[in-house]
Structure formats: structure tokens, C-alpha cells
Design goal:
This protein is α/β, with parallel strands linked by helices. It contains seven helices and seven strands. It has a seven-stranded parallel beta sheet with strand order 3-2-1-4-5-6-7, sandwiched between helices. The longest helix is centred in the middle third of the chain and has 29 residues. The structure holds NADP nicotinamide-adenine-dinucleotide phosphate (NAP). NADP nicotinamide-adenine-dinucleotide phosphate binds next to helix 1, strand 2, helix 2, helix 4 and strand 5. The site of NADP nicotinamide-adenine-dinucleotide phosphate has 32 residues, from helix 1, strand 2, helix 2, helix 4 and strand 5.
């Protein structure tokens, strides 16, 4: 049976690769981002709806879920991927930085997850995957990022809490803790320096995160898991 997915932040980097991958695998997809239609990064497809919306807006989150139900009659997988990253010394974060990180990374997670659960609970099935960072488990000297980690690390804890809360209700919740992945997020970064942020000596590819999402979506006995996809970065020092 056709599975229906909602991917946030679906028009760039990890979310874009994931949306294309899910379409190739037969999923119907609602692809959400603030400037989704203007970006035009996704070609028209009969199993795809591209929708503009800010995950920080609860109405936009609810609209995306309603679209999945109205167009594809279900919602099986939600990937909380929309996110921003600001690395700087802790004392240099401004109130505007804090507000931006909380809006997209925290409020976005809450609004989309609540809207998704409201649709999934009456059906007694569903799967939520959050895209986190391996920096939450293994901070790296030279990449100070305590504010994004505060939120992404909190989502790791919430993954376990939500998994327990919903396990008997047919809903799974997992997180992928990604290492440094080659996306426009790092457009200004030095590729050689970034490669040293993984013991594998290279940065990851978006399709390596998509493969992990496909694995988790098929792994029906896996919930509350934080799956590190980072070339081993979380495992120790290198
Ligand atoms: N790349 C990495 O190395 C890495 C490592 C660990 C974790 N991650 C996480 O992976 C996720 C994706 O990262 P990426 O590297 O693929 O980023 P990216 O290339 O910068 O793409 C971010 C996507 O999110 C959308 N977006 C941003 N804010 C949004 C909002 N408030 N509401 C809706 N959509 C929003 C953007 O589109 P619009 O501008 O149109 O909204 C875009 O489609 C993020 O959560 C990030 O923290 C990335």
C-alpha cells in the first residue's frame, strides 16, 4: 500500500534528497518549506504536493498535515527536517539568534509533531523521524554550537519520551543524529576542514541520511532510537 510522508525543509539539502528518494520508492509526499514554491527545486510529480509554510507557525504545520490527509488519504511518515544551525561562542549568541533557533528548531518540531500525532492517533499508526546532530552527543572543539545543541539534544530526549508515550498506540518516534552532511548549509565552509570533523575523513552525503530514514521507516520494531549517521563521530575522539 502507498505510504504517505510529510517532509519539512524539503527544498534543499537533506530534505530535498529525501523527498526525491521517497518519491522514487513509491511514497506520496507533502514537501514543506517557507519558500518551497519559489525555490522550484522539486519537479512536478503526481504523488507530490509542494507547499509553502513556516514550521514555526502552528497553522502552517496543521495545513501541511491536512494536505496529506486530503490529497493522499493518510499520513504514515513525518520527517522533522527543517532546521537552522548557528555555530558561535556561547557568549556571542544574540537574542535574535536565540529567537530564530527556538522558532524553527523547537517550535517547528512541536507544531509539526503535534499536528502529525493528531492525525496519526485516530488511525493507530504512524512514524515520526527527527533530524538531529551528532554534535549533541559529541561536541567538537572549534564548532561551538551550544544553542542549537540545546534544542537538538532536547529533541533526542523527547524522542525517547514520545516513543514511550505512543508505543502502545501504534506510533514510533526516532531521531537521526547526522554528522556533517554536504548541503547548502555549509556553502561557506572549507571542505577540507569540514572533512576533518568525522573520523571517516569525509563529510556525509544527503543520500546517506535518506537511506537511514528508509531503514527506520521499514524497521517496525525500532522506536525511541537515536541513530547516528556520522562516519563514527559520536563514538569517541579522533
Ligand atoms: N548539513 C549538516 O551538516 C547537518 C548536520 C546535522 C544536522 N543537520 C540538520 O539537518 C536538517 C537539514 O539540514 P540541511 O543541511 O539539509 O539544511 P539546508 O540545506 O539549509 O535546508 C534547510 C531546509 O529547511 C527549510 N527551512 C528552514 N527554516 C524553515 C522553517 N522555519 N520552516 C520551514 N522550512 C524551513 C529550508 O527552506 P526555506 O528556506 O524555503 O524555508 C530548506 O528547505 C536541519 O535540521 C539541520 O539542523 C544538518
Amino acid at each position: 500500500m502507498q505510504r504517505v510522508a510529510l517532509v519539512t525543509g524539503a527544498t534543499s539539502g537533506i530534505g530535498l534528497d529525501l523527498t526525491r528518494t521517497l518519491l522514487r520508492r513509491g511514497y506520496a509526499v507533502v514537501a514543506l518549506s517557507r519558500r518551497a514554491t519559489a525555490r522550484a527545486s522539486l519537479p512536478a510529480h503526481e504523488r507530490l504536493v509542494v507547499q509553502d509554510g513556516d514550521v514555526a507557525d502552528p497553522a502552517a504545520a496543521a495545513r501541511a498535515v491536512e494536505t496529506a490527509l486530503a490529497r493522499f488519504d493518510g499520513l504514515d511518515l513525518v520527517v522533522n527536517n527543517a532546521g537552522i544551525f548557528l555555530a558561535k561562542p556561547f557568549v556571542d549568541y544574540t537574542p535574535e539568534d536565540l529567537a530564530a533557533l527556538v522558532a524553527t528548531n523547537l517550535h517547528g518540531f512541536v507544531h509539526v509533531t503535534q499536528a502529525a500525532l493528531r492525525a496519526m492517533l485516530p488511525r493507530g499508526r504512524g512514524h515520526i523521524v527527527n533530524i538531529g546532530t551528532s554534535l549533541a552527543a559529541q561536541p567538537i572543539a572549534g564548532v561551538p554550537s551550544a544553542l542549537p545543541i540545546l534544542i537538538k539534544g532536547g529533541i533526542e530526549a523527547a524522542t525517547r519520551s514520545l516513543a514511550i508515550e505512543h508505543a502502545a498506540l501504534g506510533i514510533r518516534v526516532n531521531t537521526i543524529a547526522a554528522g556533517i552532511i554536504d548541503t547548502p548549509m555549509h556553502a561557506q565552509g572549507d571542505p577540507r576542514a569540514l572533512a576533518q570533523l568525522s573520523p571517516a575523513g569525509r563529510i556525509g552525503r544527503p543520500d546517506e541520511i535518506s537511506a537511514a530514514v528508509l531503514y527506520l521507516d521499514a524497521a517496525e520494531f525500532v522506536s525511541g532510537e537515536v541513530l547516528h549517521v556520522d562516519g563514527g563521530a559520536h563514538a569517541g575522539r579522533w
